[in-house]
Amino acid sequence: MPFAVYALGLAVFAQGTSEFMLSGLVSDIAADLHVSIPAAGLLTSAFAIGMVVGAPLMALFSRNWPRRRALLFFLCVFSAVHVIGALTPSYGVLLATRVVGALANAGFWAVALVAAVSMVGPEARARATSVVVGGVTIACVAGVPAGAALGGHWGWRSAFWAVALVSVPAVVVIARTIPGARPESTPAPARDELGALARPRLLLLTLLTSALVQGATFCAFSYFEPLATHVTGLGAAWVPALLALFGLGSFVGVTVAGRFIDARPVALTTAGLLSLAVGWTGFALTAGSPFATVALVFVQGMLAFGTGTALISWVFRLAADAPTLSGSFATSAFNVGGALGPWFGGLAIDAGFGFRSPLWVSALLMVLALGTAGASQGMRRAADRSRDGVPAV
Question: Tens digit of pLDDT for each residue in 201-217?
Answer without folding.
Answer: 666 666 788 899 989 99
